[in-house]
Every structure is written in C-alpha cells, then in structure tokens.
Amino acid sequence: MVLLLALALLLMPSYRRGGTPVQVWMPLSATKVCTPKATVGGTLYNSMVAPYTVGPMALRGASWYQGESNVGAAQFYACAFPAMISSWRELFKVPDLWFGFVQIASFGYSHPMPGNKPETHHSQMAGDLRQSQLAALALPNVGLTTAVHTGDWSNIHPPDKENPSKALADQVTLLLLFP
Amino acid sequence: MLLLFLTMESASAAALGGVTSTAPKGAGWNTFSAVCWLTGKYIHDALGGTVPIGLISNNW
Asked: Is the ipTM of this complex over 0.90?
C-alpha cells in the first residue's frame, strides 16, 4: 500500500509582506459561492495542484497548515476553506480524501492596524480565523489539530513542528489500522 | 512598540526530528515542509516501518 500525502504548508516570508490566502489554492470557480467575492484566486492551484490531479493518482490524504494570510477575512474563509476541500476531492477523484488541518498558531499579533484600531484587534481577528477554520469539520473525513498552544510570539512560523505533525499522524495511523 | 520581522529558514535537523539528510548539499531537505515530512515519518514508524509512504510537499 502506498500512501500519498500532500501538504500545503503555506509560508509567509513575514507578516505584511505576503504569504498566500486560501483562494489561490483552489479553482476560482469554487469560491463563487462565498462572500465577499474573491477577486483573485486559482493561481497556485493551477500551477502547483492541478498538475497532480492528472490521474491516476493514488492520493490518500492531505494536510493543511495555512490561514495566517486570511486573518481579517474569517467570514470568507469559513466558506472558502471547506469549498477548497470539496473541490480537491472532486478534482482528484477521491471523494473520501482524508483532509487534516492545523489551526493557525499563537503569534504576537500586535501590529498596529489601519484605521486606528487597537492593537488587540489583530489578535481578535486571528481568533476569528481559527473559529472559521472549524467550518471544515462539517465535511466528512476531516481531521483537526491546533498550534494555538505551540506557537511563537515573534515567529509566525513556529519552530515546533513535532506537535502538529504527531497529532495529524496519529489520526491517520488510527484510520489506517482501524478503518 | 516593537516590530520583529524574521526571515524564513530551512528546517533544521532538530526540527525534523533529529534526522539529517544524506543528500548532497542543495538537494536535501531545504524547504521541504517539516510538518509534511514528520507526519509521514510518524505514520511510517507507527505502521512498523514496512509501509511505503509517499509525500508531496506543496507550499509557497
């Protein structure tokens, strides 16, 4: 048996300089049901995911560690994130594709915000994004873990990789041993 | 007010669970996702090390 595991660990060079929002990792058409409307999307899906969908592809699962670039857009994320999972399952032709994700890490979200918002506003928006990630749990075969307790105040890429990895691996192992 | 901007670094051997790559420099782990690799490693270990695990690191 071969298990293929795709991982979309979306890296941000640093806060405010970029990173990738969820909508670039899914076909733009799959975001159409979401509000507010995404104006750009699909780019990295087209270049980096779609080629793998050219089958046959024995993909068994995917894990996902992203969300930082969508902080401030929780309402959109709660729609687009599960829509992306559904679109991948359809496009890979693996309807029961296991999909595990990591809730975004704790981080010193305290940068000044536009519009004279208090600095805590950003932390609150990060919390809203974590909440919106849970929308994916409405779908079957979705696994959750969190990095909210293993983050780093000064590094949005927290050095602790072991804890989220172990949590996801344990879920996959149990599903494989006790299907 | 303190603003910190950190640059990205390749995953260290420690972050990868103490395993070092034997690949030539420039062809090793580099920016392969540590979470992807570790997840595969832990699954592989838990299944007794007998099941091949294929991994795709897809990130930006």
From this structure: no
